[in-house]
Amino acid sequence: MQSEENADVTQLIEENTAVQQVVSNVSNELIARRNYKPAVCNVFLNEFTKTEETNDYKFDTHIEAKKRLPDIIGNKVQIIKGVSSADELFRKKYCKKRNIGIVFSGGPAPGGHNVIAGLYDAAKKANPESSIYGFLLGPDGIIENEHVELKDDIVNAHRNLGGFGMIKTGRTKIDSKGKMSLSKETCSKLKLDALVIVGGDDSNTNAAFLAQEMYKDGVQIIGVPKTIDGDIQVRDANGSVLCAISFGFHTAALSFSNSVSNLCTDSCSDVKYWHICKVMGRVASHLALEVALQTHANITLIGEDLADYVDMRRLEKAKKEGTTDYTAFGMTLRHLSRVICDGIVRRAAVGKNYGVIVIPEGVLEFINEIQIFIIKLNTIIAKYNSTHDTDFHSDFPVLEDKLEYLRRLAKASREEGIFTIWNTRDDDLFNDIPAFFQEGLLTERDSHGNFQFSQVETDKVLMGLVKDYLKILKEKGQYKIGIPKSYFYKTLEKENLYPDILGPVLFDNFGEDFLIMKDSITSVKTLNQALNKDGIIRDGDKIPGPVEKIYKKSIPSFKTQLHFFGYDGRGNDPCGFDCVYAYNLGLTAFSLIANGSTGQMAAIKNLEKEFEKWEPIGIPIAPLMRIEERKGKLDLVLEKTLVDVNSPCFRILKELREKWLGAYPGEDDYRKPGPIRYIEKCEENRPLTFVLNELAKK
Ligand code: FBP
Predict the structure, then answer these.
(1) 137 φψ region: left (φ > 0), alpha (ψ -120 to 50), beta (else)
(2) Residue 369 domain-assigned?
(3) Neighbours of 145 (CB within 10 A)
(4) Nearest residue by C-alpha to atom 4 in ligand 1
(5) Domain region containing 224
(6) How many whole angstroms from 174 Cα to the centroid of ligand 1?
């Protein structure tokens, strides 16, 4: 019901077209994005394309992949070549009327709509009669035959825009005979010639199994590498890069970087907070690494780096005693918190009790004790579900019930002497961690059996330990804010006190630029004692105001603001690089289909080089498969690529870590990546991780 007093506003909205335009959901940015035409790789300037197999790349094929994917295991890398004129037979085959399905699988990644747009444009150019079906809500759409036929209006409305809103997405895996046969039924009902699966490692795994399953039916399956996590990177056995990154990674990294960079700006202006930035990336730390290079945040943790950590001091000590300390290999949560504290304390010593820390969402995967919990709990939950044919989380809805179940397992191992994966020691250690973290570790696994790191408050766990340790350091007088020498002189001289006499009484490093109050002075009482001992004041005298003021300035309070960067960056409109990359992936997918490929992943080689050198290719999925633990069992999946700690970009980060920590007087080294753009030659704005790796080759 419209109220009387708003009648004039209602009329304004209904009758004034200028007002309607201002309040409509069509912004100038939206119009410009929809009209933007991404550049296409040279081969696509030709009327047709053909595929050429090459033997230049070798893969270490897993024996299990050979057994389970016999019809597609022999696939080779295919190079897409332009064909300007073709004979009638080729033309007929290439341009035949086709029915093509496309589905998004897994988390959204900027650029997805351009994959559809590229596929749609290429398919319609080859034959306007072809139909493109978008399956709704992810693989469920295939299983349940929920689809929409894509037409100009839907596709045009989503060009160069973020999210997967056009057809939505989902995380269902087609992993049972039942789901597989329903999927086949859908393909046959829609008379599909081909199905394009846009997804991450698990979804491309699905693509390989579907390709095998539908090989005889003649339904071609093409995968497209999507994930903001950046962990789908393909190299052959000799290390030649075939796919440097999935689409969506760069936009998400730039979006996180922009926010983190703004926090760097705020932090060094307001000088009172440490901003703790957890960034997405379920396991691999590629996003955190790129954010570090883009922003120069003070501290960035890289999970893969922690896994490689060796505590040399413990190792040396054990060596002297003639033993080996195996606990010296790998990082513990406690030790990691000490490393962070060290950076915080050193910055405080030069007056910087603020800063920015970047924590990868999946960092816990690389912490020994936590990884063991995750593996054990994955197995326990998977085993419970398969033996009871119910769901662990529905049977034990609250934390206390889950803990009780674990207690029973530990008791059984103790009293009945049977071997269980969960013993008394596990139970004791688990009971030592805070309830919110226990809950996180017991959280429901996703449909692929993956641990859902985004549901765990990693940052809270880690910063809890950091806070506890900083408190201890503060009590010991080892966490102090450095006082600028000039400020000390000015404050004392203003009240006619003698800084040169008081300085050595108060500070250990008197004479340096930033003065650190002695360890023994940790309270007004101990300050009084120090002044008394050196005869500056007598019993009962008050501490001189300026001295007390300096003391108070030297006592830090550690204040944090926690931020999670994930869904925001995932939903960003694609940057120029991803608009162009994803559109060309769509064109590549069609080229593969038109040339009869199946079990291949559309990719662009040379992404790390200038755009003119981008080369559309098809990568065989089956030879990329490895055995990994899923739902407590070993399964054949597409291998995830972790951060290579020997890569130039990581080694550069390591070298510059100290500089970016900024534990020196003066300005920090923060870098501003700037906002996300799609215009001009933005396909040349690529991840810094690539750029550095490429430059290191020259
Ligand atoms: P994909 O691998 O499916 O692309 O998803 C990656 C991701 O964005 C991770 O970074 C994150 O851990 C996860 O999705 C979050 O999943 P959900 O959307 O289910 O919360």
Answers:
(1) left
(2) yes
(3) 16
(4) 227
(5) 38-83+90-247+574-624
(6) 18
